[in-house]
Design brief:
This protein is mainly α and 71 residues long. Helices cover 73% and strands 0% of the residues. The chain has four helices and no strands. The protein has helices at residues 6-13, 23-35, 37-54, 57-69. The model has no long low-confidence stretch (mean pLDDT 92).
């Protein structure tokens, strides 16, 4: 269940990832992506933008935690 993972949920919300349950759903999503260039581009662009927006997130979290610890 992808709902347990924030990043997965974020990507699904942004239509940058597509949850599937089983081969039939996987094949359907892949067929849509392979046959719809616009969908493929928009989902890929959305995924790329999300990854870029999260760049450095781990470092920011560690910095925040260390600053709180010293206060």
């Amino acid at each position: 269940n992808y709902h347990k993972f924030q990043e997965a949920s974020d990507l699904v919300d942004r239509q940058a990832a597509f949850p599937v349950s089983g081969y039939g759903e996987f094949k359907s999503v892949m067929d849509r992506l392979l046959n719809d260039g616009k969908l493929l581009k928009t989902s890929g662009d959305s995924a790329g933008a999300y990854v870029k927006s999260m760049t450095g997130a781990s470092a920011r979290i560690v910095d925040f935690a260390l600053k709180r610890k010293t206060q």
